[in-house]
Design brief:
This protein is of the alpha/beta class and 529 residues long. It folds into two domains: 246 residues, Up-down Bundle (Growth Hormone, Chain: A); 242 residues, Vaccinia Virus protein VP39 (Rossmann fold, 3-Layer(aba) Sandwich). 56% of the residues lie in helices and 14% in strands. It is built from 20 helices and eleven strands. The strands form two sheets. Strands 7-6-5-8-9-11-10 form a seven-stranded mixed sheet, with helices on both faces. It has a four-stranded antiparallel sheet with strand order 1-2-3-4. Strand 5, helix 12 and strand 6 form a beta-alpha-beta unit. The longest helix is centred in the N-terminal third of the chain and has 44 residues. The protein is elongated and about 100 Å long.
Amino acid sequence: MANAAAEAPAPASPGTPERARRGAARQEAQSVLLLGSVFVIATCGLIYELIAGTLASYLLGDSVTQFSTIIGAYLFSMGVGSWLSRYLGGPLLKWFIWLEILVGLVGGFSAPLLFVLFEYVASFRLILYALVGLTGILVGLEIPLLMRILENRFEFKDLVSKVFTVDYIGALLASLIFPLVLVPQLGLMRTSLLFGTLNVVVAAVALYRFPETRPYRRAFASLMGAALLALAVTFGYAGRIQRYTETLAFQDQVIYAKSTIYQRIVLTKNQRELRLFLNGNLQFSSQDEYRYHEALVHPAMQALPHARRVLVLGGGDGLAVRELLKYPQLQQIRLVDLDAGMTELFKQNQLLTSLNQRSFFNPKVQVINGDAYQWVRQDTTRYDCLIVDFPDPANYSIGKLYSAAFYQELHRLLAPGGKLVVQSTSPYVARQSFWCVAHTLQAAGFHTIPYHCYVPSFGEWGFVLAGENGHWRPNAGPLPRDLRYVTPVTIRQMLDFPPDMAEVPTDINQLNNQALVRYFEEDWGPYVH
C-alpha cells in the first residue's frame, strides 16, 4: 500500500477547490488509462498463448497433445509469475513499464525465433517450453502488479470487478480475432510482432501520462525506441524470414505459402515434381499421386457401373474428382471441403489446375466449403458412391470424422447397393490405426473390404471399401482406359495383406474416446521430430 501511495498524485492544498478538481479528474483519467492497459495486455497475453499452441502444432505435429501441453505450461507459468509479483517493491509504475517492454520483446519475437530455430537445434522442445515458460511468467506478473498500482484508487470489490471484467473482455477479443483475422491475414510471425509492439506502446503511454515517471523517462525512451524499431523492422521482413525458414524445412523451392483459418499451405517444386504440404505434412507428390488417387477411386467405381451421384468428402485438391470425371455416366459430383483457401488455390494456380485437369470447372462438379461433419448431418441426398479423403486422424477435430457416429451418418446417405471408400493411413507404419478404421466402419453397420497399395512418397497406404453387404464384384464394370496404375490385376493384389500388415484387434473409434487419435499418435510418434 505504501508503494502505491507513493506513486499517487499529491493531494491538492486546502483552499484550492479548482486544483483539487483537476487533480481528481487527472487521477480518474489515469485510472481509466490503467484499466485500458489491462484490456490491451489481456488481449496480448492470450494471443501469445494461442501463438505458442498453434506453432507447436504446426512444427511438432498437428496433435491436440501439443496444444494442450503448451497451454497447460503457459497457464502454470502465469501462476508462477503471479506468485513472484509479491517480491516486486519500490516504484511499481517503473516495474510495470519494465515489464511491458520485456513482454513485448519476448512475446513479440517468440514466433520468429522459434520458426528459425526449429531446423537448427536438436533440443527444440526444450527451447519451446523455456520460451513459453518465460512469456507466461512475464504475463502472469502484469495483472497483480496493475492491481497493486490501482488499489488506492478503488474499493477492493470494485477493483477486482473492474480489472477482471476488462481482462476477460480482452481475452474474448483475442480468441475471436486470432483465428478469423490475425492468422489468415498476418500469419503467426507478424501477429506476435504486432502484439509485442502493443505491449511496448502500453509502456510508452504509461511513461508519458504519469508525472511521477519524469526522472527516468529519458532512459526508458531510448530503450523503447530501440525495441519498437527492432519489432518494426522484423515485422517488415517477416515474409522473408518465413520463406527462409520454409526453405530450411523443405528440400525444394517453396513456390507458394499461405496460412488460412485452418492450416498452413505450402507448395514446393523441383525439376521433377510439385509437392503439397499442410501444416508441414506431405499431402501428395505430383510424381506419384496418381497411384493414391486411382486406388482411392477406381476399385469402388468399377463395382458401380450404374453410379450417377458421388459425394467426395475432403479432397480439396480436386484430384479424386479428376479420377471420377473419367466415368461419363456420372451426373453429379459434390465435393465438401472445409478450407476455401485450399479449393481456391486448386482453381487458380495454373500448375495445380493442370494437375487436376481443371476438375473443379466441370459443370457436373459442385464445390461446397464447410464442415463435413455438420454438412453430412443435414444432407438428404442419397449417393451411389462416397469418397472419404480426409487428412490423417492426427487430432480430435479430424478424429471425429473417422468415428462410428460419423460413419452412421454416411450409412444414411448411401443409396441401396452403394459403396463407401475411406483413406485409412498406412497399414504398415500405422497398423493399429488402419484396422481401427475398418473395425469402426463395421461397428457402424458396414461390411468392409480393406485393401492397400504402394505409393513411393508415402510407402504402403491403406483404404477400406465398405457397403451395406459384403458382396463386391471387382470386374462388374470396365475401368477407364487411361489409368496409369490400377488394373484388374492390381486390384486383386491390393486385397492381399502379408503378416506384418495383418489384422490386429482394436477399440472402436467413438466420439467419447477418440481411440483412433491415440493409436495414430502411438503408431506415427517414432517417425515425428
